[in-house]
Design a protein that fits this description.
Length: about 500
């Protein structure tokens, strides 16, 4: 039986505490009114223009003494002539001034009306811009929380899908890792509850993450109106409840049957798991695609991609497999999982490598097809990310493809623990950035940066994830006793 170490438990509590404080700070410091936004924008303008103004003033200033010297050098004899000329000009222009004053008065009144109209239009546009920035800045702590929340929940879902695949495939290498997988999936119920509450808060307009929930926006947007039969809150939240409930039901019964198999005298519970795993995978492959549309793609309801469901799946699936490898290596380092050998670790590393390549294939396919078609509704997705999110956008490709393929393509490296920990850390960070790229541009626009809200949200959910997962690992033996393939798994070598 595994014992949750006091150091790791304390570490998880510290992460949750720091995360909660940082999340609270992010919400408290978010602007509340348009006046707060104006103050922020003025401060930004002052910061960016201060240096330029100082330089300009230095070049534009002329010494006053030069003008004075020049004026004193004018000859005095020109004074009488200038007086005569000025007298003649005054008498000539007096009549013309009288004639034009009436016409100028009428023209001035007309221009004044036009100026007033332009000023009102400019003021309305300025106010609309300030409200837009206000929503972006208010979204920032919500979006940071949302990204971390869905990322860690989908890690556990990815592990659950991997576990279901192993059951249906009747794999002989993986049963010694089943309890590790079940421990990681223990986070799914906790993450699902938090995430569902977050979705409800979105529907109650506590934030502006999903613009299609704003009636004022929908009233002026024909494209969103055309999708309102699908994108409406009651139907949307019902779908979410069905998806989360279905995944958790499978998680509950598959673990229950696996534990019951330890005490059984036959393979009936194993066969039950085979059957429900097959049904779950059918349910999962459908609901995963719809989930990716509902919870991620719909933050920008004008954009769509037929590859998006597969793309999201590849991202959290490889993250889940990487987490299995990381937890397994940790338990091995503490003297547990004596039946797990380098061949098991090598297989996990191969999956990490293979699904990373699969993710890259989907990333490039989605990008290439949209770039080639050049349809405005589609290409805007990548234009925004390349121009405004250039570093995280291409950084995700480096962390999720370039780094894994350079490290994990080597067969020997797939068996070296410290290399796998390093590669796994980079992969997990890279796919967090991937989810960041999917959600942030549509919710906070150009007001993004990695700040306290983002870091604190990751800390909080990482701490909660560690606490739940390693607590679950203490509840049952780490090796399933009567799995039909357990002996094959224990002696797995190649």
């Amino acid at each position: 039986m595994y014992t949750f170490s006091s150091k790791l438990r304390t570490f998880s509590f510290i992460l949750m505490l720091l995360g909660a404080l940082g999340i609270g700070y992010g919400f408290l410091t978010a602007p509340k009114t348009i006046q707060d936004v104006e103050t922020i924008l003025k401060a930004e303008e002052t910061h960016h223009e201060g240096g330029h103004e100082a330089t300009a003033s230095h070049h534009e200033t002329e010494p006053a003494s030069h003008e004075k010297i020049k004026n004193h050098e004018e000859p005095a004899k020109t004074t009488s002539n200038s007086i005569a000329v000025k007298t003649e000009i005054i008498s000539t222009t007096q009549d013309s001034i009288t004639e034009t004053v009436s016409a100028n008065h009428e023209e001035h009144a007309s221009n004044q009306i036009e100026v007033t109209h332009d000023e009102a239009k400019t003021h309305a546009e300025h106010k609309e811009h300030l409200e837009h920035v206000l929503h972006q800045l208010q979204n920032k702590p919500w979006a940071a929380f949302y990204v971390a929340c869905i990322f860690f929940m989908l890690i556990s879902l990815g592990v659950l899908a991997f576990y279901g695949i192993q059951q249906v495939a009747q794999a002989g290498w993986s049963p010694v890792l089943f309890r590790v997988m079940q421990g990681i999936t223990a986070y799914l119920p906790v993450g699902s509850v938090i995430f569902f509450i977050l979705l409800v808060l979105c529907g109650l307009h506590f934030n502006h993450l999903f613009v299609w929930m704003d009636k004022d926006v929908v009233a002026h947007d024909k494209l969103i109106q055309a999708k309102s039969g699908y994108l409406n809150f009651p139907f949307w939240i019902i779908r979410a409840a069905v998806f989360l409930t279905g995944w958790n039901i499978y998680r509950y019964f598959s673990r229950k049957n696996c534990l019951a198999q330890d005490e059984s005298s036959d393979n009936s519970n194993y066969k039950k798991n085979f059957n429900i795993s097959a049904m779950f995978l059918v349910f999962f492959i459908v609901t995963e695609s719809i989930m990716s549309w509902d919870w991620i793609m719909s933050v920008d309801p004008h954009w769509f991609s037929t590859l998006f469901g597969w793309y999201v799946f590849a991202s959290f699936f490889v993250s889940g497999i990487t987490t299995i490898c990381m937890v397994t290596l940790y338990l091995k380092s503490k003297g547990y999982l004596e039946n797990v050998n380098s061949s098991h670790i090598h297989d996990l590393a191969k999956f990490m490598f293979g699904i990373s390549v699969f993710w890259t294939y989907l990333w490039f396919s989605q990008f290439m097809l949209i770039w080639y078609a050049n349809i405005p509704e589609e290409v805007t997705y990548f234009v925004t990310r390349i121009e405004v999110y250039n570093l995280p956008f291409f950084g995700a490709v480096v962390m999720n493809f370039v780094f894994p393929i350079l490290i994990l393509i080597n067969t020997d490296f797939k068996r070296v623990s410290w290399i796998l920990v390093m590669a796994g850390t980079v992969i997990l960070l890279g796919h967090y950035v991937d989810f960041f790229n999917m959600i942030m541009p549509a919710t906070v626009g150009d007001r993004w940066f990695i700040g306290i809200s983002e870091i604190a949200s990751v800390f909080f959910f990482l701490g909660l994830f560690i606490f739940v997962v390693f607590t679950a690992l203490t509840k049952a033996p780490l090796v399933p006793k009567r799995n039909p393939f357990i002996e094959e798994s224990k002696h797995f070598h190649y």
